Structure formats: structure tokens, C-alpha cells
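To whoever picks this up:

The nightly regression suite flagged Electron transfer flavoprotein subunit alpha as changed. Nothing in the input moved, so I suspect the structure step. Input below, exactly as stored in the fixture:
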Amino acid sequence: MMTRAFLLRALTKKTKFVASNAHRSISITNLSRYISTLILAEHESGSIKPQTVSTVVAANSLGESSSISLLLAGSGSSLQEAASQAASCHPSVSEVLVVDSDKFEYPLAEPWAKLVDFVRQKGDYSHILASSSSFGKNILPRVAALLDVSPITDVVKILGSDQFIRPIYAGNALCTVRYTGAGPCILTIRTTSFPVTPITADSESKKATISQIDLSNFKEDSASRSRYVGQSTQDTERPDLGSARVVITGGRALKSVENFKMIEKLAEKLGGAVGATRAAVDAGYVPNDLQVGQTGKIVAPELYMAFGVSGAIQHLAGIKDSKVIVAVNKDADAPIFQVADYGLVGDLFEVIPELMEKLPEKK
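Regenerated output under the current build:
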């Protein structure tokens, strides 16, 4: 009874974040008349990542009269290609800021945080946003520390320039948060909650201005505490897990790396992405970048299929926004069936081969 009452209070509780410096008297609410937003843009191989566009959609909810600037950093021709695409990625983007320097060839948190602070001082932004990806969650907390403000993470709904909704207790409750700090307001956005609508031909013709940032006065730490070691990506034609329309996930019940290939083949046939539970990742069946859940990737596909997934709380927190959930498990009492739209009690080693036979070949 005490736990239930506690959760009920949490659903209606409004948490306030207050700036620690008492001499600051300007509230973010005073800036609501003119909202200027800086978004940290993610790009790869000359293309803007979909989660950045979803973050732009979220920024539109901050207020009607607002300007949105995208910040891109990196080096080489791929950066300029990404900047050109960013200028027309969404009609709400008014400016693209480009930092072309070898210092930002890799997205390390320390130099990026310094860069965001440097750009903020020039632009006087009221809000700084990034997606709740490893990129955003790595950089924005450090930016918040530099500015001595409290960041608000995993925002799923924006009620105004200073009021937001975010999940707590592994997604079992939603908390309304009002920001009362001196600004800027720093947010990480759960992009699956802000879908992108198709851009019309008229909107595509509207391109934002592209500006180069002068780093002549930029000062970075002489002794960096981190260094870039390497990056590994899977060479596959499958869609990205975070933005795929179809996601096929396997659990520890698959028992081995070899057996997990069944999931990969099914995903290829359905044109979907491959996901995995934390238990499957810990067992070494697949790399950790395929983990779905609270400590992995949050997904919201049109179809989510779970094979041998029990339905741990942290996993369910990452799939609850899926349009249709299909679960296959031998255990009829598995928690996954409580959230599934369609469920089948059966042996996945029998179900998957039969499903593969009956599915038409991918064209």
C-alpha cells in the first residue's frame, strides 16, 4: 500500500530545479517572450542523423516565436555535406553553425562542452537541446556543470518554455518538471516521442543560413583527460535500431551466438533492425549497441517482435512507445505478455523457422 501511494504521489508531483547561485535573479520564464534554441546536431558520413531532426520537432514546442540553430562540429568534406543537408532538414531551422576543426574530429565530451559554452556566450541562447543518445547524454551534463545549471533529461513532452514531462521509475510514472533556473535551460530529448512528419516540396525549398564559427578566441583545456581510441560499426544494410519501422529482438533464451543469427535472418526478411535484451548482450550474443531498454536504446517502431524476451522492467521501458508489440515465449506467465498486443506461447526454435517459411521473400 505504501508503494502504491508513493507512485500515485509521484504521478502528480511537480519537481522544481532551482539555480544554486542566489545572486542570479533572471528566470527562464522571463525569456519566454523570445526563445532562442541551440541544438547539438549529430552527423555521420555527411548526413544528419534522424534523432537530430526529431529534436528540432521538439524545439518547436517551446514557443511560437522561437529561433532554432543547429551546431555541427567536425572536419573535412563530410562536415560540409552534413551542414548543407542540415540547412534544409526542417523548415524551423533558421541557422546552421559549423565548426570545422581537427579538434572536433571525434565527439569527445570535454572539447564539445567547451565549444557549446563558447557558442552560447556569443548567441545568448535560452535553451540548449540534444537527443537522449550516447552523444547527447555524454556532452550535455558536462555543459550543465560548466554553466552551473540543472539539466532535465529524457523529455517526452514539452508543455511550454519552462515546463516538461519526463519518465521516472523506469517509465512507470511521469513527472512534470518546471525549470526555474537562471538559464539556459538544458534538455535531452527522447526522440521517439517526437515523430517527424514528411517535409513538403515547398518546405524543402526553404534553406537556413550556414555560418562558420571563428575559433580564434576559443580556449580548450591543455591537458585533456580523455582521448579517442577507436570506433566500431557493424557493416550491415539493416536500418538503424533507433529509427527502424520494424525491430526484431532476441533474448537470452536463444542460448548462443549461432542461434541469434535466426533473429538476424528474420530481421533481414522483414527489412527490420535487430535488437537484444541486456541479458543477451551480457551473454555476448551481440554487441551492446543493439541493446534495447532503459540502459540501451529507446525504440518506437511500428512493429516490435520479441523472441525469448521475458519482459524485465528496464526492457519494457525501452519499447512501450511501439505501435504493435508481438511476443513469443515458452513461459505463459512472462511479463512481456502483459504489454504485448499479440502473444504466442511456444518454442522460438520452432516458431521462427515456421515463420521464415511462410513469409514471402523480400523484394
